[in-house]
Amino acid sequence: MPWDVTHKTKSKEKILICAAKLFVEKGFDAVGINDVMKSANMTRGAFYAHFKSKADLYNQALVVAAFEARENITQGCDQGFASLQHNYLQQGQDPTLKDNQQCPMALLISDIRQREPLVRETYEKVFKGFVKYIESQGLTEAEALKEAATMIGAVALSESLIDKSLVEKLLAACQE
After folding, report:
1. First to last CA, the chain
2. Distance of alpha carbon 166 from alpha carbon 157, whole angstroms
3. Residue ranges of the alpha helices (H) in 98-163?
4. What is the mean pLDDT of each run of 10 residues along the chain (176 residues)?
5. Are 100 and 91 in contact (CB under 8 A)?
């Protein structure tokens, strides 16, 4: 019996969602094609029906990770920028949010600079979209750039620091 017409699209979506989560958690070098396909419950051979290379997968998964993170971070943000900022800064610290997709801009910041131009361009597009979203909350472009850099940097640092008290102080300072 042949696959239905949406099977290929659904398979690719499943691979991208699994890859997005794995890449954000571990980075490009620590994730193999086999890891992604195992997470998606598919064979390695199915990978090549959808992607040219691991770099192609990474590039596409970056966009998926950004959309997934945005969905998680913007929930309940009808109160404007302050609630968005709070959710963004708490994404890695709130145990109830740990299972959700975290922001790839913060968690892959040092990983991206080592990638080919196409991946860096995709990262830049995601960043520009984030800045535009912040602007839509009533901030100027300059304010949005400053806030985006502060929030991304704070989350990146908070995921790297061990001292939880220092992390709390850092996140609180960035929210003032």
Report:
1. 60
2. 10
3. 104-107, 109-112, 117-135, 141-160
4. 69 95 93 96 91 95 93 79 89 66 88 92 96 94 97 93 93 90
5. yes
Reference 34, options 45, 46, 44; nearest CA is 44
Rounded distance, CA 99 to CA 113, Å? 26
Cβ atoms within 10 Å, residue 36: 25
| CA atoms of 39 and 19, how far apart (whole Å) | 8
Q: Measure the CA–CA gap between 50 and 132, rounded to whole angstroms.
A: 31
Please give the C-alpha separations between residue 48 and each of 14, 65, 119, in angstroms, as whole numbers. 14, 21, 19
Question: Is-contact 71 133, C-beta < 8 A?
Answer: no
Contacts of 57 (CB under 8 A, 6+ apart): 15, 16, 19, 33, 36, 47, 51
- The position carrying tokens 């920028």 is 81
Give backbone dihedrals phi and psi of 175, rounded to 5 degrees, phi first: -90, -10
